[in-house]
Amino acid sequence: MRKNHLIISIIALLLCSSLFFAGCSKSDSVGREEQKAKEIVVAIYRDGAIDKLDAASYDGPHFLYKMIYEGLVEDGGEGKILPQLATSWEISPDGKTYTFKLRQGVKFSDGTDFNANAVIFNLKRWVNNDRHAILTSVNVESMEAVDDYTVKIVFKNGAYPILTELTYPRPVRFLSPASITNSAGKDGEKFTKPVGTGPWMVESYTKEHEFTLVPNPYYWGEKPKVNKITFKVIPDAQARALALQSGEIDILGGDLIGKIPMENLLELKKSGKFGIYTKRTMCSYFIAFNQNVDAFKDKNVRQAMNYAINKTSIATNLFDNIGAGANGLYQSGVPYTTAENNFGFANDKEKAKQLLEAAGYRDTDGDGIREKGGKKLEFNFVLSTGEFPEWKQMAEFIQSEFSAVGIKVNLNVLDKNGYEDATMNTKAFDIALMRTSSDSWVPHGSLLELFSILVTSKAAKAWYDKELYSNIITTLNTLNEKERQENYDKVFKFISEEALTIPIYYPITSFAVNTNKIQGFEIGVNSYAPIEWQKINVK
Questions:
Q1: Residue 93 belongs to what domain range?
Q2: Could you say which of 164, 188, 212 is where a domain stops?
Q3: Domains in the chain, number
Q4: In 88, 128, 256, 451, which residue has its Cα 20 to 30 A from 434's Cα atom?
Q5: Backbone phi, psi, residue 465, to 5°
Q6: 482-523: pLDDT as tens digits
Q7: Whole-angstrom Cα Rg for the chain
Q8: CA 368 to CA 371: how far, in whole Å?
Q9: pTM as predicted
């Protein structure tokens, strides 16, 4: 009898155990499903270059630096500078000495501490380096960790943009010193992996295919609401749009993530199936001249090419009134620009022809192309469509406009690497479609980027003029606001009057979102922080 009771007890225990583990299995399954439901998928036009995402470098997408790394201060939009890893700061009257009080209790995503020593370690990796010469903040006299949470930096010049530059996505961000190892290489160090104090950290990376970010468990600020963001690499713009329509991705768009072609944006908007979000930017599209080309040394030719293009028609006829035709190189609203100092040339093809005639260019053989001294006005027009798919359509329109006044341009569409090499290193173009920097980079950072000699090419990206460059530097080191405006007037007027570029178009940024799944979507404060990632949630 006692034996029967024992058998019954064992059976009862086994039944309870099976029910318990079944409950656990069901609970685990529900947990996994909930975690998967909290994942979002974003299309990106290029590889994330996670293995090269060193905070002190320029490799990989800008916006990833903002997600993984943080700086001392952050761009709050509309000229506001917000505290980030620094809670407060003091600036000396001469604008040279900055003393930062650091946020305490912050850890990198590897669990190591963020402190003054980590700041100094990172600063030493990029200050006084010619590679970063377009930054006024690169010129440092001295720096020291006053105590564990105080850093003092003495800059060589009291340049007014220093604090703004410290908000940039790169190279003024901080990575864990533990992610740099000693190496026998050129700089005696080797980057191993991206480890920052930001809200996100890398979970996985498959080169040229996809990469995933997950919340940093040590993050000190607002925690992300989703468990994972997967970025799928889809280089073709049309394929990205199809991926959204098929449900393969949840978010499409963003200037530095994967732009939506104009025709697809209109189609997605018309369908009514997706949330469409747009926002004005501070970016401009323009044509840069290679100033080594003889024809462009004549101001008449540069002005003629400005007059030849109907910029208004690009916005109204090509892009269904999305964005606007450009006037000056910079958009109105960019600090220190005015209608008097920042202007362009209205479409006037007859005026363009007259200027070309005055420069000695005539069509003597009736082939529709002007020439002078046996050399035709025929140019290699370089562009890339991976990052900006609308550039192809725009370039074809520009090609037609130039043809109407006797100038032939041959379109040369390059991939991103080829385009960057041609425009930044080899100068292998006659004219090139480019964009200005945006947001907190304009105008000071953009002016240095376009009109100063770059280390990579030993030439300016857009145009170099000794007096112009000198005026830019003087302006950046002017602390008096009234004098600074006067100096900027000289700079902008020179660029406009001399037709050093051809302003083309003022774009917008746009996103299409699967709002059946995604909630809380907001466009970010700038193109380098394109989305308010922490606010996104899944319904």
A1: 70-188
A2: 188
A3: 3
A4: 128
A5: -135, 125
A6: 999 999 999 999 999 999 999 999 999 999 999 999 999 999
A7: 27
A8: 10
A9: 0.88
